[in-house]
Amino acid sequence: MRTAILELLKHNAGQYISGEEISRNLNVSRTAVWKHIRALKQSGYDIEAHSRLGYALRQNTDRLLPAEIRAQLTSAVLGQEIHYFCEVDSTNNEAKKLAANGCPEGTIVVAETQVTGRGRLARSWFSPFGKGIWLSVVLRPPFGPMDAAKCTLMAAVGVNRAINAVTGVGCGIKWPNDILWNNRKVVGILTEMSAELDVINYVVIGMGINVSIEHFPSELAPIAASLSVATGRSISRVKLLAAILDELENVYVLVKKSGFAPVLAAWRKESITLGRQVDVRGFDRSFSGVAIDIDADGALLVKTPQGVERVLAGDVSI
Ligand code: BTN
């Protein structure tokens, strides 16, 4: 019923429609109409109520509500099942629970805010309410665990393309999967998986996209940025989320059809790491050199005075 009322309001967007007309049209009591309108307002829809004229939708919500996402979605598999939370500990945690319980491939978890959002290398991820896209996607890729790291590179290519298509802002990928604008991080990606020796049960790709955060905590302020600051205008999170799912699906379909080579080639083109002097901080060693390429496994190849080092994990600063 709520969706039907919303459809009526959207159909007459900006114009009043009386409570009586809604109740007659949808065969529901005026009190029920009023309760649904109140709930819609709580979901972020800007609805004006006038005692004589009725209700008018002034502005659509920018909340990442499943109905709003579905209205923009063009992907065939990603986002067919959507789990939405106003607040959650971490969308990756929720997605992992769903995946372990057998949810279909393409299931997504989105939240307005995360209480304990997680980043790579056991860092926390700043996830303020309504200011970003805190998203996890469940994939069940038909390849072995050795290929999981490349899923992260694949996700970075998909997200970078979606950002470019929706905002026009030119970002670059820092190895392995940060998306930077002006040397500041606008997107982080955390891939987690469950696997047997030779088969992946599921991969959860968690993406944190800073859309409209204006004030970061002091430790992040010099190194983080938001897309709205990069573009100087407001960005529809719903539209961007739908584009991310679409582009991610495109690259995923390509990988399943042709292997990782085309996506690694795209990653190289969109990279801001290759050709640069980098400092590598690994688990057991640190060194500096020039990032010259990524290999077929997605490892970063760094040329040092001692020779070419292969980096599969760790922190790389440019
Ligand atoms: C990083 O750059 O360190 C990765 C950050 C990943 C953050 C996202 S936000 C959605 C998902 N849920 C989490 O707890 N983390 C990822």
Automatic annotation (TrEMBL):
Q: Entry's Gene3D superfamilies?
A: 2.30.30.100, Bira Bifunctional Protein, Domain 2, Winged helix-like DNA-binding domain superfamily/Winged helix DNA-binding domain
What Pfam families does the record point to? BPL_C, BPL_LplA_LipB, HTH_11
Which is one Gene Ontology cellular component term of this protein?
cytoplasm
Domain BPL/LPL catalytic: residue ranges: 77-256
UniProt DNA-binding residue ranges: 19-38
One molecular function GO term is: transferase activity
Q: Does the keyword Membrane apply?
A: no
The record's listing under CDD domains reads: BPL (cd16442), HTH_ARSR (cd00090)
Q: Could you list this entry's UniProt keywords, alphabetically sorted.
A: ATP-binding, Biotin, DNA-binding, Ligase, Nucleotide-binding, Repressor, Transcription, Transcription regulation
Q: What does this protein do?
A: Acts both as a biotin--[acetyl-CoA-carboxylase] ligase and a repressor.
- State the name under which the record lists this protein: Bifunctional ligase/repressor BirA
Q: What is the lineage of its organism?
A: Bacteria, Bacillati, Bacillota, Negativicutes, Selenomonadales
